[in-house]
Every structure is written in structure tokens, then in C-alpha cells.
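Running log. JK asked me to keep both predictions on one page so they can be read side by side. First protein, sequence followed by its C-alpha cells:
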Amino acid sequence: MIDAQAPIKPRIGHIALIGNALPRRCGLATFTSDTANAVRSAFPDIRLDHYAMDDGTGIAYADDVHAIPMHARAAYGEAGRAIGRSGADMLWIQHEYGIYGGAAGDYLLDLIDAVSIPIVTTLHTLLENPSADERRVLNRLIARSSKLIVMADKGRTILKDIFDVPAGMIEVIPHGVPDRAFVDPEEMKPRFDLAGRKVILTFGLLAPDKGIETMISAMPAIVADHPDALYIVLGATHPNLKRHEGEAYREKLVALGASLGVSAQLRFIDAFVDTPDLLDWLQAADVYVTPYLKEGQITSGTLSYAVSMGKPVVSTPYVHAREILAGEHGLLVDFGDSKGLASEVSRLLGDEEARLRLAHRAYSLGRTMVWERMAHRAIGFFEEIARAKRIRLVTPMTADYLAPDPAAVLRMSDATGMLQHGLYSVPDRDHGYCLDDNARALILMCRLPEMDPDDRAHWTNVYAAFLQHAWNGDAKLFRNFMGFDRRWLEREGSEDSSGRGVWALGVAALEAAEPRHREWAAWLYDQAAPSLGHVGSPRAMAFVMLGAAAMAQVKRGHDISTDLLNRFGDELLRLLEATRRPDWPWFEAMLAYDNARLPEALIRAGMVLGRQDYVDCGLETLDWILAQQHAPEGHFRAIGSDSFGRQFQAPQRFDQQPLEAQAVIDACLAAHDATGQTRWAEAAHRAYRWFLGDNDLGLMVASPGDQSCHDGLMPTGLNRNQGAESILALQLSSCAIARLPSVSSQPENAQVA
């Protein structure tokens, strides 16, 4: 499930990590311990010393945890000196005001004054209106830290706007989460005697700001629609609250349920649940709810865990919920809105298809947040601090390009189609198939310059059959994800995947080797393309336009294609004008994946329609997106996935993925076809050399020995997995680059260490 990594040997050899530690019962203890475990697992050669604040309640910590008495000021300076004597290269602080002693936790300042090594601070709480002491402590931490890590973009905004922190000093790393397989809740319910119940879950330390009253007040309406509904509140009362009030708050909640007549539909579990059991509880839930009352909560570990387990989430719109659930990854209702909670929860409980779609979207998002990924990103930042100036190591290239070869594609394919993912070079059956990859594979079968005719016909049939089966004629939409057991996991896929299906059909209708495949593709295109005329995703529009541009060459004056090209071309022009700024001539306020497909679609549409305004716009925006991917040293730098969602901001370096290089190469081929200018061929070759080692890390992303491709560049090295998307990106790039004039392959301004 997680990405297999092959990191460069880190220069950081020894880290001191300070925060809390299990078995202390608090969220920061769990987070710090999970962080320590993730780093140790991902980087076994790095020594990590775990320092934990001890609140004096008699907790017995593991032997490898160094306890610091929270209220003993002298202990902080002693701990700092011990860290210095240990030879640690870096101090990593997990900061929360409540866990360190002194006014606003200012005893911690004695510790940082006693060390001379670089410091990185992860900020778990950021206040827009801090007290004088809180501001004083945070200002000192900021001044002493080389990097600040926050878990949401709102944290970045607060640091920049309120504390005047330079943007380059701030890194956003989402809250880490465990990595588990997606499970049908019905499989887990018997363990907790929940069979036959529709389970709604909230977990975490119980406190008044969690808004449990709001959800209990929603239960009568939910139970009216779903008598088998059960709301479970899982978690012990917060220790600070329990010390002052005992269980008065829990008793108040129980009384509220009784007064509303839903006691039988409520279950309170007063326990601090260990992570494995907690994940089991989550996997048994049908819907997860966070009805918090305060907007300013920037981080919620409970929400992150729920998303990682693929739970359909209904939440109030606090900061972290707005960010993590954006893009249709969950549902939001107003603060204190019991009726809104009741409506959304009831709707999900009654609509299995909607609930499953939301669950799969959440689960996919969760895979980007797993602990090992967090560890790799953090160590990558530490490496940049340790290396005042990274020396780029350029791998010698043995050729200008790799001849297209379908061997790795066929290795990942069976009689059903091409499997999505690989564990290293081995196909991963757990994740099944998707339309996206099989559409790309069909395009490859059309574009490979050399292939045995019988083999080409066979595999064209396989990938074409997948597209045919993915088409849901009743719904007039494509499905995307299919399990290894050949069962569809959804009734309809995303707009982008459907757009890729139409793109592949247009290409096959124009370029397939055999007439029978061209005829089939044109027939299915005429069924599918009209239903995509109202997609709203810019990339879906671009994919459809690329298919329509191909089909317009098959059937001159083809009404469906002409309409789609004009409609979406005009819409892209409108989007550009709506978003354009002097420094941002782009269609969206942010960068994402497959960026160059948007200008490519305009160029191809303009060539087919004779619309010079489309061509000109495509060339202008392609120039700009190429500039965003041109490293100072001269090599191509693919827009990293860390850039996604950052409005009007320059792209981040990592994670760099092959799909982005392929999109640039294809767009430059379109620009060269439109203008004949050599500069577009040069830009395409620069992007292609990224596969061959002319990149930020000087590592071969392509795997020439087996005609394959790794899944990209992480801050610490290669992602050694070889999935369908990456393999196809290399092979399709090789097909495209072969159609362009050759240029010098000498990397620009490369330094060889």
C-alpha cells in the first residue's frame, strides 16, 4: 500500500525528537511515538533518540524513551546539554503549549538555548490571537528553528501573516496516518457485536469543545429514518477535564440522550484505545462524524485517521476539516447544526453507492498521508538543512532516448487489462485495475512504432475490452476502479477518468493499426463523448478535447467533436481570463497534475478548427508552465505533488512523477507540430532527459534493463515501485520523443561530484 523507497544514504545520522510518548494518554504522545516509529522504520540507519515530557503521574515509559520532568525547569537545560553530548545532528521539536512547563511552556526555551545543532519545529497549535507569553515563546522558537512544519495550509497563513515568517521557512506535512487495506465495515462489525447496525462513530478524548451534544441532538431524526442506527462515542474523558470535574460531562451527555429517547441508539465507550484496536473500530464504522464547535482547530488526528481508513466523513467546517475534506473527500455542515448533521448522515446511511464513492475517495487521499511518507518528507527537509548547497549528481546517460518497448506494460497486464500498481516490479493485485491506465495502454498500442502484429492485435483487444466494459451505457458514464475479482468498485468514475476514456477512443479511431479497432473506437466514441459535454474539471475538458481533435481528423466536420472542441476551448479561455494575474497566466489558481495537457488541448483544437486564438493561448500558457518546471541549473523539474492545492504559489520540488514529464513532452510535440520551431523540440528533450537522470537528484527514473520506470522522485531518492501510470508515461514519452528532431543530450550546467 505504501510507496517502497530507495533513499539516498542520508547525511543526517542522528536525530533527537522531543514531545510526549506513549503510554501517556494524549494525542501528542501517540503522534510523537508514531513519528519515532515511522522514522526508525523508513531509515534504520538513522539513530533517533526520543525525549518525552513527564507530567509526574507515574507513567512507566519504554527503556528507549528519555523522560524529562515537565515542571522541573533545571531538567530542560540538562536535557539540552545531554542532546549536545549525544552527537545528534538535528533536534526535532513537537510543540504544543500545554506539554511544556512554565508560562506558555517557556521552560522549553532553556533547552533550545543549551543546544547548538539545527532545530526543526512541528507546530501542533497556532493561535491567531496569542497571549503575550504565547507570542513570546513562539517568536523564540521561530527565531531558533531552521524549518517550521505545520499540518495545514491555514498554519502557513498564520505564520506568514501574524508572525512574519518567510514562506520558504515553512513546510506543510499532513498529519501522519497508519496504512491499512480498505475493508468493508460489515466484515469488522461482528468483532464488536455490531452486526445488523448502521454505525456512526466519533472518537477521541472527550471534552466539551468536541460538540458531541450536537450529534446526539441529531440522533432522533436519524433513528426515524434508520432505526438500526447506532452512534458510538469512543474515548476516555480528557485527563485535565477529569481531574477538575470527574465524569460530569459524560454524564450530561448520557442524560441528553435519555431525554431525547435515543439511549438505545447511543453507546459510550470510556477507554483510551490503542491504535490497532482503534483502527478496527474505525473499519467497523459506516460513517464518521466530527461535530467540533470551534472553527480554529488546525489539526485533527482523529479526522486524519478516519480519512485514512476510508470513512465517509460528516464534519463541521473547522480549519482542518475544510482543508482535508475539500475536493469531495467528505461533507460539511454548519457548527451546532443538528438538523444538517441528521440530514447528511441519514442520506449517507440510505445511499450505499454514494457512501462507497465517498469512502474510496477518502481512502485514496489517506494513502498520501501514511506515516512512512511523512517520515520521508521530513528527512528530506532535514537533508536540505544539513546540506547548505546540495551537489547534484548526474548519472551518465548512455543514449539520447530509449526505444519504445511494451515489455513492462505487458508484464503488468493480464487477460482483464493492465493492473494499477506494482510493488517494486511485481504487479500488485490488491489494487486491481482502473480505466485511466487501460485507456493509456490502448493509446500506447496505437502509437508503438514497432510491435509484432499479432501481439499488437491481442493487447489492443484486451485494453479495448476494458474500455468497453467500463462504459456504463445506462448511466452514460465510464466506471474507473475495478477490483482484481473483476467487480466494479463504483457505478461511475471521475470526470478525469471518463475524459481519458474518450481521449483513448479518439486516438484509437485515428491511429489503431487495424480497421476493426478503428471502427469500434469510433462507434463507442459517438456513444460516450456527448455525455461528457458538461464536465467541469479543466483536465477532463482537456482529455476530451484531445480525443475530439483526433476524431475530427477521422471524420471531417464531425459535429460531436467540433462542438466539444469549441465548447471546451472557449471555456478554457474563459477560465484563463478569470484567473489570470500579471505573474500567473494560468487556467487555475493552483497547479496540479498533468498541467501541460491544458495548453496541449488548446493547440490541438486550434489546429483542427483553424482557431489561431486557441493555438496562441496554448503556446503562451505552455511557455509559462515550462518556465515553472525549469530548474536554475537548467534541467527539467517536474511540478511536485506537494504543490497541489497551493494557490498562486511557485511549485514545490517533490514528489516528482513521470506523468508530468510525459504531459510536457506531448504538449511540446503539439507546439512543434503547430509552429515548426526547434525550441519546442529542445524543451521536450529536456523533459525527456528527466527520465534518464538529468533531474534534481541525478537519478535514473527509467529502468532501461526491463523497459520500466520508477514511480518518481521523493526528497530522499527514488520511489522504487513501478506502477502502470509510470511505465506508460515512459513508453508514451519515448513514442513522442521519437517524432521530434534530435537535439544535444548534454545536460545544462550539470555538476559532477
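And the second, directly underneath as requested:
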Amino acid sequence: MKKIDKLIISSFLGPFLLTFLVVVFILLTQHMLKYFDDIVGKDLGIEVLGQLLFYFAVFMTPIAMPLAVLLSSLMTFGNLGEHFELTAIKSAGISLLRALLPIFIFVLGLTVFAYYSNNYFVPKAALEAYSLLYDIKQKKPALDLKQGAFYNGIPDFSIKVDEKFDDGTTLKDIIIYDHRNLTGNKKVTIADSGKMYTFYNDRYLKLELYDGNTYGEDDKAASSANDKRKETFYRSSFNKSEFILDLSSFGLNRTDQSLFEGNRIMRNLSQLTNDVDSSEREVKSKKIEVFEQMPVAFYYHMRDDTIAMPQDLVEFKHYQDSIEVIEDSIRRAEDARKMDSIKRSKEENDLKITKKGDLGVDKKDKKKPNRPTAKPVRAEKKKTTSKVPNAERIKQVKKKVIAQDPDDIKLRDERDRRIDRPRVEKKIEPRDTMTTEYLVDSLFNTAETENSLQTSLNLVRQTKSKIRSFNNRIERLTYEKNVYDIQWHKILANSAACIIMFLIGAPLGAIIKRGGLGIPVLVSIIFFIIFYVLTMMGEKYAKQDLIEPVYAIWSANIILLPIGLIFLRQARNDARIFEADFYKVLIDKIRRWIGKKRNNNNKEGQE
């Protein structure tokens, strides 16, 4: 590395680190103000607050890094131009592009780091930050007994203290209502003074009460809820009494993080790709269902309808059907394999049983002749009794033929004659064609009752409701797909924005030739606002499905890139576009050109 490269890199790294930390701090402060009310008063501790701030700081890096590159590059080359170091570099024969090269290589490496950070670190930090923030919101406020007011934060107890001393433990004039029996304010304890302190890592609260009484009503003796006459009242006095209250509900209980992983900001590129594909498949499946439901809903008019399913839906349906066929064949093969294994095991068991039976038969029994069993005898009897004489059977058949309808006999004879003919497919009309035609004609028949009209209106309402539900479902699925697609492109676009901001900041600093935090900060804020507004507008239109997410998210980079290239060209030509003399000279040139144009027109008119 040459000395000129070391000089430029060293002059860039300091402002970059400083501006990056400042930008992260500003963005973090602005973001945490939204959750200020949910954090204050929860007695979280330094460790929990430190984790929350660290995770949110990592979550802010995709926005902070391009802004830090813009501001630091503008400050670096503004300082070099203000102290004439850039002029000395150019006089030594080194071009501006060569001077920009070391920082450009550094920014390229920073872009790669930003990509890996946005893809891996930021989703993980977002998951940790928002899951911890959710648990903090669910956590109860810290135990804080106020003088003269009832405190109901402890479950099943209501406590009032008239005076708290400066030591934080001594109390005076204490009233405690016990609601553990869920019978109302039927048990109360009043004490003159007491002490309050926690133990076992603030898990339990101990109240020591002195010189008091306990009042209560016991309704165990009552036979029914309406019989209040048998309730007993009791009172007891004490010199010292102790209450131990469980404070486990005041602790920070962590929720399973897998419940938050479905959010788009907590997903990386591969997960977002799967989400986009699954959402797109659901959208296409729902559209296919709409086309399949149309003939059912409009079964009369859709017979001659010429609206065909789009080609992409046809291809997706073919793909889906092929997948279902493959899955079905795999399932059948597994079922057949299971049945074969069951059959083989059954045959093996039968073979073992028969072998055991052969081994257990006595030799004397083998020599004896086999006796006929009862089963074959019954079968023979059945066979003989089931036989009918031929003459009687012919009479029965004739009776059946005579009892049949002559039309049925003709149809059967016609079928028997055509048995050997080639089979010709005949187009069968829909089964309810005549019915629908009759229904349509009946709608225009004034003599019909109101039932037909009511039935038709109900069918129309059902069809309208189905179409509306399908459209709502498709809109919601399309919105989810666009949201995941937007986040996928934002990971790449925010990484590439580092290069775009460098191409704007470095040439602009060489043109302005002003360092420090004055003009560079102002110019950086202007361009960052332009970048942020374009990104937000594109994201809004993409969510509404007005623009494709790829164009919506990359529009800010596409618009700012030509501006950076123009600034780079002007910086190479030593243009003074931010000085008043430049515009005075430009205005004079325009005036001369207009004057020459008028003189030429006057001469042409005189001739």
C-alpha cells in the first residue's frame, strides 16, 4: 500500500467510526422512545436493559451504515479539499479516481459485510430484541407502595400504608385485604406498624405486623348461598404477625422465541425465499379454486363461457396434480409394503403352528383312518337341497319375464344385439339442463310464486359471498407475499446503498471543499431523506400491489446512482457547481447565446 492510500484510508476511518456510532445512537434513541412507557418502572436491571439496547443497536445497522458512509466520505474529501491536500494530489499527477480507489475498495468490503450482517446478524438481533421487549411488556411494574393508596399489584392481596419511613422498610397504619378465598372483602388485617423487606433473591416479600387485629366472616356453616344468618364473625388480636407473599409474578419470564420467528424482519434470505414461494403457491391454488367454482355457481351461463384459465395457472395445476399423483403412488407403495410384511409374518406364524402340530401327533393316531368331519357333510346337504328341477326352474324364469315391463325387455334385447358392436361414445348432456332452463323460464313467468324468486336471490347471494371470500383471501395472501418479497429485496438494496452513498458523498465533498460537521451534515441529511422517502413510498406501493417489489425497493438506488455519477464527472472536471461565480458565468454565457441568436434572426429578416 502506498503512502497516499494510507493517508486517505486513515483520514476516512476516523470520521466513519464516529459518524456510524452517532447515527446508531440517534436512530436507537428515536426508536426506543416509542417503548419508553413500557420499560420505565419495571425494575429490569442493567443486564436486561443492556441486552435490549445492544440488540436494537444491531437492528439499526442496515439504516445507519449507508448514512455513515455518505457522511464520512463527504467529510473526508471535504477536509482534503479545504486544506488543499486534494489539489496537491492532483498536481502530483494522481487523478481523482485514483484517490477514490482505496476508500472505494474499503466500501466494497463494507458492502459485503453489510450483506452478511443484514442476512444473519440483524434477523437474529430482531428476534432477540422483540421477544425480550414482549416479555418486558408482560412483566408487572416493580413493587411500589404509595402512601395513602391501596396497592393491588400483588395477587389476591390489597395493601394500604398511610406512612412510609425513609429507611424503606418501616411502615405505619397498615390495612391488608385478603382475597384468597374469593369471597369478597371478608377478611381484613389492621396493624399499627410493621416492616417490609424481600428475601431469596427478591422472590418473596415478608410483612411483619405489630399490634393489630384480624377481622373475618366464616360462611362455611351456611347451608346455601342465600342463607346469611348462619355466617359467623370472628376477630383475633396479635402482638406480632407475619405475611409471606409470593413475588414470582414480578419476575421477567421469557417466552419461547419460536413464536416470533414468522415475522418478516426475523427471516434471512433463504427463509424469505421459501415464504415467498409458499405464499405464491397458495395464491395460485386459491385462484384455481375460483375457476373450479365458477361452473358450479353459474351452472347455466358457464356452459358456453369462453374464458379459459391463464397459462400459468394451467401449468401450476398440472404441476400440483403430478405432485399429488407421485405422493399417492408413494403412499400406495408404502401401504403395499406394509401389507406384504404383515402377510409374510402371518404366513410364517401359520407355518410355525403347523410344524408344531405335526410334531405333537401320536404315531398310533396317524395309522387310524381319518374320520369325516361335520363340515363337508353340511356342505353336501346344502348342495343337494339347493338343486331345483329344470322344469320348475324354467317356470320361475317365465314368470319373471312376464312380470317385467315390455319396454325394459325391448331395451335389454337392443342391448344384447349391440353387445358385439364397436363402442361409440355419446355426448351426454348435463343432467340438470332441462331443470335449469325451466328455472330460467320460470323467473320471467309472472304466474310463479315468490318462492322461485327467493330461491334465485339466495343463490345469487351465496355466489356473491363466495366470490367475496375468495377475493379477500387472495388479497391477504398477495399482501403476505409482497411483504416477504419486500424484505428479501431490502436486505440486498440496503447493502448496495453503501456504494451509492459513497459515489454521492466522495465527489460532492471534493466539489464543496468544506470539512467538519456543518455543510456535510446538511447535505447528507438531504440525500438520506430522499433515499428514505423513496424507499418508504416504494414499500407502501408494493404492499398495495401497485408496483412490483423489485422495482419499489430498488427505485431509490436506481434514482440516486445517476446523481452520483454526475457528481463524479463534475468532480473530475473541477466544476464549481456550489459557488456563485460558476452560476454567474453560466448566466452570462446563456445571455450571450440568446443575443447572438437574436442578431442572426434580425439579419436574416433584413435580407
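Observation for JK regarding the second prediction: Confidence is low (pLDDT under 50) at residues 359-389, 397-407, 415-434.
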